[in-house]
Design goal:
single chain; 186 residues; alpha+beta; 60s Ribosomal Protein L30, Chain: A; four-stranded mixed beta sheet; 6 helices
């Protein structure tokens, strides 16, 4: 009987200790005032150290495109045709200035190889114009080598009168066709 009374007292004490206790809300909430809590970004929105944001990726892509466009424009400016007088392969002042800019660009862009194409107008024989076109291409190549461009990066070829820029039969068309044309050879 003592055991039964002891067990009954223990059960009452356990139930009394496990009863739900009333938890009082903070005073501000009980008065009906709700304090504003600072917004926290969702876990997916938080930046993690070492990660690149989408904004940064877009900025880098825009910068890369701008740099590529700038490089393409510099290449176009450097690879300007030079022109010759009738029956001549002498480099005139305009050609020397253009070749100087081209040499600077080639020195700055060491991975670029260059093809120098010598062209002539339609007057004269095929053989004569092929030889004259080669002398024109070689004149530009010699200038570039003397300016510091490695000879192994340059290739001079002649098209003679076979690839005119202007197919016309006027002095104006002939002047456009007496040229060296430069193209990057990657």
């Amino acid at each position: 009987m003592k055991t039964l009374a002891f067990l009954a007292c223990a059960a009452v004490l356990m139930l009394w200790g496990c009863a739900k206790k009333e938890v009082k809300a903070p005073l501000a909430e009980r008065a009906g005032v709700v304090e504003a809590k600072p917004e926290q970004p969702a876990p997916a929105e938080k930046e993690r150290p070492g990660e690149i944001t989408e904004e940064e990726l877009l900025r880098r892509e825009a910068e890369r495109k701008r740099a590529l466009a700038e490089a393409a424009e510099q290449e176009r400016a450097a690879l300007k045709d030079i022109y010759f007088e009738f029956d001549s392969y002498a480099l005139n002042p305009d050609a020397l200035q253009a070749l100087s800019r081209l040499a600077d660009w080639l020195i700055a862009n060491k991975e670029t190889k260059l093809v120098i194409e010598g062209h002539c107008d339609e007057r004269g024989t095929i053989e004569y114009n092929l030889a004259l076109g080669q002398r024109r291409a070689d004149a530009a190549k010699d200038y570039l080598v003397k300016a510091g461009v490695g000879e192994g990066r340059l290739r001079a070829v002649s098209y003679g009168k076979e690839a005119p820029l202007d197919p016309g039969h006027t002095e104006e068309a002939y002047a456009k066709n007496r040229r060296d044309h430069f193209r990057a050879d990657r």
